[in-house]
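We emphasize that the prediction below concerns an isolated chain of 479 residues; any contacts that depend on oligomerization or on bound cofactors are therefore not represented. The input was used exactly as deposited, without trimming of termini.
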Amino acid sequence: MLAALCLLTACKPVGPNYKVPVYTAPPAYKETGAPTVVPPPNPQGGSWTPANPSDGMLKGKWWEVYNDPQLNRLEERIATDNQALRQAMENYNAARDQVAAVRSTLYPTLSLGAGAVHYENSEHRPLASSITQTSYNDLVLAGQAGWEPDFWGRIRRNIEAARATEQATAADMANVNLSLQAELAADYFQLRGLDSEIKLLKATVVDLEHQLDLTQRRLKGGVATQADVAQAETQLETTRAQLVDVGVGRAQFEHAVGTIAYYNIPDFSIPFSPLDLSLPKIPIGVPSQLLERRPDIASAERLTAAANARIGIAVAAYYPTISIGGTGGFESTHIGTLFQGPSALWSLGAQATELLFDAGQRRALTDQARQQYEAQASAYRNTVIQAFQDVEDNLSTLRILDQETATEQRAVAAAERSFNISNSRYKGGVTAYLEVLTAEAILLSNQRTLTDLQTRQFAAGVQLIRALGGGWDVTELPK
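Result of the prediction step, given as a token string:
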């Protein structure tokens, strides 16, 4: 009988088997014109090869592409110290334990109990007899076994749902990790961009101090006027104020980096380090790889698999619930005879229950499970669409910023020439100092704009790497 039951429990579980929702990725990204991205090689035979998580993409510690030791040290702390990531890890551990808990219901439960009771009955109870004992012991040592064979696959579908949920939680943890890594890198580059701006403003302050000194000497020589000196002082103090104001943003980015890396903020600081790195080349791979590289896509797909398994759980409710139970042990009034043959007891039985009427509850729950699956499948497709938008947005941002940076570099060069000409004209007594101030203000504005554009290129590069999934791929999901 047990062998027959085991064979029955090996039957196909009721409910639909899972298939990944269909989504056809485009053959190529639209926005690939930036020089800092590396498009995939031309396909052979006119068609792209199937996606391979190991080819054409960043791997592992993606931030090392920037060759910045200080950034590397900060990023390494996230995996060991960040509390948001630790929270996500504990959620994953809880989901993993849930799989083990659900899997245990496949097997019988065994229990052992012992009892000792002394009875003292009333001699004046109704129908009492002089030959009936009024005082005796009841000693019991017995074990129980129960098992619900998984005939219809309800338990196996539960395990499928729990395992898929565990994998989704693991992908969520990877997504939290990637988000923290990208946020830290972006904040770090923003800070270094402000350091470049501070360097620029400090150099401008030094130049303005020299300009003020020159103007004051020219005033003593009767060449300049008090208005020229006042204008030079105004420009100098305005630039000093701008220098102080940049420190506000730098402090905030430093605090953000320290918080993500889980440092004690009062003891944490990042040395002054202007952004003088070269923009790295970012391999983007083919679009079909995005489905295997983004942890949020993997999470949505695994939640869809869990929703599909719950349809089978709901369908299994239409079938009888069958359970097998047994008891065996010993019972006696004296400890000395407890383990003798006549003291043995046992029972074995089975029970089947079929719900005949529930006013449509099972049908409603099954329909609900199907609708929840469809909703989750739509959520998966929407996540994929949003992922492609993220990639295209950042690719276009890099392309446009590259064009804007090239234009701004020409503007800075022109502003430098204009300033040098005005400064020479002023020293030669040909023009008023106002022309110098105007030219220098235009030059400083363009230089700050160029610095900001270069910083935004680094931030956009980080966001592109995040949109591509960093160095993660689906092979890292627990099996």
